[in-house]
């Protein structure tokens, strides 16, 4: 896919694979303006002032957004004319969530109480301090890369806390409980997303999926999946407390290199946690036959 930029930073070539058409289009044909970065990602274009910046989707609701993932084959047009539409792809609880329909995602969700609150608070404080410093001292691509590095480091701390927590709970280590999660993921894979890989650890789950663009919102899919499995698994273990932590960590995969790294990270998680010597030996790991290993 060839992308060229004019000297005034307008886009000269536009690819529209989602409608089966590839043609040269001028940016003027886009109703709200737009900008497709060659490396993928959310970019915002303000034609009246010629400014292109990364913005949170909660800002400037009357402008136009486009998301482009060249290396994982996803192009999604997003026209957000109303502020009420924005929570379909961006929302925030304790974590920011960017979930454009049709995206490829790395998801992690965990059992309720699986990380001590003091550890979570420390991870959050470290992350917020690093983000504040980055936003005060950097801008443009340097800031974007630094923010990605900080979020990646914070997730590493989060996952290490899950693998190293000696106090449990570890309900997912029980075969009957893990199988309920496996069956629910199988149902979701038939109806809502393409399932590339998963690993069900004793206290958390990693997924790599390609969301179907015409499926329900990813946040709604995960809510249904966790609600159903939480209820059934609680019946199996004789508990009535919350089963899952409410929030799901999600990361929008940016390119093929990142896709491959995440796939291997998921499959090797039991080895990293010293539960098995080879990833194939873990009974609750799945790799799609077409996944490059």
Can you walk me through this structure?
The structure is a single chain. The protein has 293 residues and is of the alpha+beta class. The chain has 3 domains: 14-92, no CATH class; 94-114 and 168-293, Alpha-Beta Plaits, CATH 3.30.70; 115-167. 34% of the residues lie in helices and 22% in strands. The protein has a 5-stranded antiparallel sheet, with helices on both faces. A hairpin with a 4-residue loop joins strand 3 and strand 4. The chain is globular and about 50 Å long. The two termini are 26 Å apart. Mean pLDDT is 75; it is low at 1-92.
Largest sheet: 5 strands, antiparallel
**Which whole number gives the mean pLDDT?**
75
Q: Strand portion, in percent?
A: 15-25%
Named CATH architecture of the largest domain: 2-Layer Sandwich
Question: Which key terms come to mind for this protein?
Answer:
single chain, 293 residues, alpha+beta, Alpha-Beta Plaits, 3 domains, 4-stranded antiparallel beta sheet
Topology:
Elements: E1 14-16, E2 21-23, E3 41-46, E4 51-53, E5 64-69, E6 74-79, E7 90-92, E8 96-98, E9 104-110, H1 117-137, H2 140-164, H3 175-191, E10 193-200, E11 204-211, H4 218-237, E12 249-252, H5 256-267, H6 269-272, E13 285-287
Antiparallel strand pairs: 1-2, 3-4, 3-5, 5-6, 7-8, 9-11, 9-12, 10-11, 10-13
Q: Can you describe this structure in just a few lines?
A:
This protein has 293 residues and is α+β, with helices and mostly antiparallel strands.
